[in-house]
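Consider a protein example.
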Amino acid sequence: MEKEDNVNELKLIKAYSRSVKNLRKRKIIRSKNITGDLGEHYAKIYFENRYKKKFVLESPSNKSFDATCNGEKYAIKTISTSTTSVFYGVTNKENRIFDYLIIVEIDETYQPKEIIKMDWDTFFEYKKQHKTMKAPNISVTNILRNDKRTYVDSDPKKTIFNQ
């Protein structure tokens, strides 16, 4: 590796660091989970712009749900592939730990690509047990996207960025 490449790498790392610092200052990044925090931020802006209701993000330490709106609890998962991380605390259908699940899919530039919303019953029907984590997750498939109980916006940038 040449000296010029090392300098360019250092500049990139410093620029990344400044960006993360700015995002933290604006409260867009609120934890060590940068990707998850971006998804939560996109979900907040999206639903406030779309439904004109206050969407309140919970503390990052809250493990059951990530936001509330009109007394309803929302779990938010951010994905860049077709599968979410696991949902801890899900035991049975009657032990509802959130009312709605929002999945924010982002692309390789961290821009929102798709937003999916489903209620607890739909989540419970589609969840699968993760093989090693001992908790369920969701695979985003065309069957899920086409389920009439699932809301899908495949171009959320218009609503988020008012484009």
